[in-house]
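Re: export button greyed out
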Amino acid sequence: MHGLAEDIVRMGNQIARQFAHLPEDEAVTAVANHLRNFWAPQMRAGLVDIVDEGDEVLEPILAEAAELLRGS
Amino acid sequence: MIVTLLVERDYGTPASTGTGLVTLEIDGATVIVPEGTSVMRAAATAGRDVPKLCATDTLSAFGSCRLCLVEIEGMKGTPASCTTPVAQGMRVTTETTRLQRLRKGVMELYISDHPLDCLTCPANGDCELQDMAGVVGLRDVRYGYAGENHLDAPTDHSNPYFDFEASKCIVCSRCVRACEDIQGTFALTIAGRGFASKVSPGVDQLFFDSECVSCGACVQVCPTATLSEKSVIELGIPTRTVLTTCAYCGVGCSFKAELRGDQVVRMVPYKDGGANEGHSCVKGRFAWGYATHRDRVTKPMVREKITDPWREVSWEEAIAYTAAGFRRIQAEHGPEAIGGITSSRCTNEEVFVLQKMVRAAFHNNNVDTCARVCHSPTGYGLKTTFGTSAGTQDFKSVEKADVIVVIGANPTEAHPVFASRMKRRLREGARLIVIDPRRIDLVKSPHVGAAHHIPLQPGTNVAVINAMGNVVVTEGLVDRAFVDERCEGFEEWAEFVSRPENSPEAVAVDAHIDPEELRAAARLYAKGPNSAIYYGLGVTEHSQGSTMVMGMANLAMATGNLGRDGVGVNPLRGQNNVQGSCDMGSFPHELSGYRHVSDPAVRKIFEDKWGVTVQPEPGLRIPNMLSAAVDGTFRGIFIQGEDLAQSDPNTHHVTEALSMMDLVVVQDLFMNETAKYAHVFLPGTSFLEKDGTFINAERRINRVRPVMAPACGKDEWEVACEIARAMGYEMSYARASDIMEEIAAVTPTFSGVSFAKLDHLGSLQWPCNVNAPEGTPIMHVDTFVRGKGRFVPTTFVPTDERANRRYPLILTTGRILTQYNVGSQTRRTDNVAWHPEDVLDIHPADAELRGISTGDWVVLESRVGATTLRAEVSERMPVGVVYTTFHHPGTGANVVTTEFSDWATNCPEYKVTAVQVSPSPMSRVSAEALTGAELTTAGATPAS
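Workaround output, generated via the alternate export path:
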């Protein structure tokens, strides 16, 4: 059994790995765009919270993408 | 709606595909027909039906009955009109004294060896032999009836749906030819010679024990009562017809529902149905009895807690209870705390209204559809590369394919009517490539064999498709003209796939493939000249499902296999209306026609029509709704016709989430596994009660017409409207066609669709609008929907689900022919005779290692759960891979599947679960005594 936070970490890392072949800035933008297009606002906010709490291991691209989502 | 029995015209032989025209004279009338047409068909076209028995226009001419003789000026004798092609200037006479004498002589011989029980025969009034006796004026039989005959031949009652009354057989071979030419199973033969000739399933087997797949083609073409539906024998000949659409798989076959009064007597495939052209499978043809099964729930029910007993209530109370519950949750926990799920088993009209209820009455975008768990990666992948979320071809296109690639699909089991069409093309000489871990039937079956079978390891699809791209690019097989003119991003993709790490040799070890075999397959595909890809859930239900869809699109673009007959990228959709439920705006980020909710211009169209604000942000998907329920932030859900607790992955997680919600509303035909966690049960309608449309895998919009009144007293869309109104949003329609009018008004790809046009033309393939008023059979003909086709580099990112020492095998799941999804329909029909339980297929080496034999009870265990089922040792399986179906709640295969999903869409990774299989500690007897819940917990490891 798992909650939304586990979904966010697992799915977010998976998305980040999918775009990892791109140059870093492009990858970060691609991940952020994907999350904007397909994730509900509460999930995007949840990702930002997870980054702020710092307890989860996130792909660096995902963590950077979360910065682009702050306040969105 | 047709109120009398629809008897389709039989022209005796198939229509010619010839392009030139031939002029001839038949009985003094001038007739112009395509070259290659038979004299019989030409005569029928001119209104001069020639008597016949062995001929029917769904089968090639055979020329055995000698009843269709004609006279042709300048030709000797009396040629058979079925096997004689027309010629320019030919003069044919169909009625002369000589012909009448010859035909009467033939009929005398037939009738001398036929039971004279017409008045009590089930085919009385629907028998071609009887008709022909009348047509030729047979009044007596000179030979008498006491000669040697077959009147004592036994009747075979073994098939659950039809009888084989051999004493009435005239050995016309129609059934044998239908099994070969239409179905492609070759289960029937003519055994013996001369007078001893007889139709035989297999070698003197009963129908049930033979290779017969009960498609019904033999029953349909039989000109006598020899092969008759048991329902006709029991109820009599039907008297009226309603044209409608099957509600099983995504082929979407058109059927004639034939009734006496309001009782369905039989379902007969419709020759003019665009998807099936007169063919059917065992489910659509015969397994419709669930619609009137005694288990149907027809009264609304409510309960405060899921531990309370159900209480039958009025519709008014159920609607009020539901609306008040949802409003209370939103008041306490916010507007985002509830949502809804649409069903791919429901009509477009029902789906559209339900997603509208969520967006307009719930005031959020928390709507998703069961397509989430099957073909959502198709939507993402094809929209990204081609510009729209749908397959590129019509089914008929396969008739022009030179090379057919089947990837992660098993059409003979899951899409049998399309499989028959495909097999016919393969028998004509098309080459076949099968990319699938299992040795599915298509790899080797009668008169069909794969040129290449790539038995890849589950989870390595993307590595394999990249390797095929590598061969195409590095061996100079790219269609440069197509790529240069119609695509973008090619150079980047070509550089990516041509890297050494994407070569067949580099991926061979991890993908468990023979690199030379893969190279040969890639060359074959690239050289076509017409190559078509057909794929199923073996593509989509992976962590890389969307990547794989884009990988296939890349390959098709690189080789120029798009935009004409015989090519394309074609998803074989799972349920009857997966395509439609997606088209109707069921996804939380899209409105109908695949337009993102963030686009203000798009929202304005809906806001103007609906008079309400549409939220600009995506809502939650099904798996996220469930996880949010575990967190306590998502507390109410409306589930339209989906059994989440059986069909969705990681059953323990699903049921835990459902049990934590304050209000679960289930709308379905039967009490299902999900309803165990529901507070409100709203009875739904079967396809025989629905009025609306389904859209099949080829984007074909077919009418679904009500055969009987809703057993529960309401249409499903009406219920959604009432809930919306009770929640304060005014929504109502007078009839289903009004809903389609609204869909057309707000959806550009449907702007030309109406019930009236569908009734007139039979069906329409979207886009259907001012540019294509009669629809679009093949997409991307001159340009892609997005303009240029987009190549996307498809990096292979392996799944996190890995086999290890504790769970060394990979489980993959799928379907079987006679059952359908969670089985709630087919388990309530005689189809259980073929598949009474789910079993686990395991390779002999893996079985021997574990001391397992066929029939043994085994424990199937993953890191999230375990279940117990019987094993079947099978060489179809590769070593290290096991397979089962998910049709029975008793075994509940999804107890073991995990939370992993496609990176882009969250489509669950059903096809890759690391498992262990071990002999069950329970004896066979004790295991059989257990209930479903006990089976899925006995031996289970606590979920981690």
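Chain A is about 75% helix and 0% strand. The button fix ships in the next patch.
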